[in-house]
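We modelled the chain as a single entity of 317 amino acids. Its sequence is:
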Amino acid sequence: MEQTTQAAAVRTVLGDIPAAELGVCDAHDHLFFRSPLLPGQELTDPLAATRELRAFRELGGRAVVQWSPFGTGRRTDALPRVSRDAGVHVIAATGLHQAAHCTPGVLDRVMDRLAELFVAELTEGVRQDEDPDGPAEPVRAGLIKVAGAFHGLDTHARRVMAAAAEAHHATGAPIAVHHELGTAPLDVLGLLCGELEVPAAKVVLGHLNRSPDLRVHREAARSGAFLAFDGPSRANHATDWRLFDALVALAEAGHTDQVLIGGDTTTAAARAATGGGPGIPFLLRVLRPRIARELGEQSADAFFVANPARAFATHWH
């Protein structure tokens, strides 16, 4: 695994911070998110986002990584204010989701210059989703979000991942991957870390709890990538009961230092502050104490503090 040094930094919406200052981290969530596949459940309200973060902070939370990429209503205009008001570090994403999740018309304007867009958002500032040629917000992204397909990689996924790899090589930014129903992490590693030569320690494999294949998890972990277990999610809770089986299996195989935990709140109904929950606070109210009881405080600290600091810090180019 890559070792973080004092020169490595996490790029938040309020500026770069030393990795050691990140603190207790929700490694995969959404404060703002909009998708044609989730009509009526958009996350658009800054006050609701602030309330959710304040509840998280009251339980000891200090950082949230938002995986909403370009074209999904990520509200970079509101993120700095929400971060300040709640007293929580927020990391924003560039990148591109599956085509079905993107705002209609967005893909036509950006597909021919994805790498250029990603690099600009990481180094200069994030563009408004509706106007990728307009002025950048004074907010820089801190990671690149991409997405695979169900049990494989389609043409869209390969094209976006190739651009993400190019942007990584230009900037050093970590790449976070949505796996459809938790599938195809080995395909992703073969492309990103094999063909495209992205160091595995700069790759975060998301949603692995949705396909609790412990053998695949262990094989993916042997690559050196980070493995994100981002539930429970109201929309994807069928395998919640297998989460601890997966965490224990990875710990017993010696991969405690590669596990990340997130909430993946993608709908208004899933918020704790304004919906039916369980929301972001659940991670510290319920999951962290259970992890500490099952695997010990050292593992809990690794999952929520040490591992995110290494996964999302880099030597920015």
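As a brief sanity check on the tokenised model: The domain at 24-314 is CATH 3.20.20.140 (TIM Barrel). The two ends are 20 Å apart (CA to CA).
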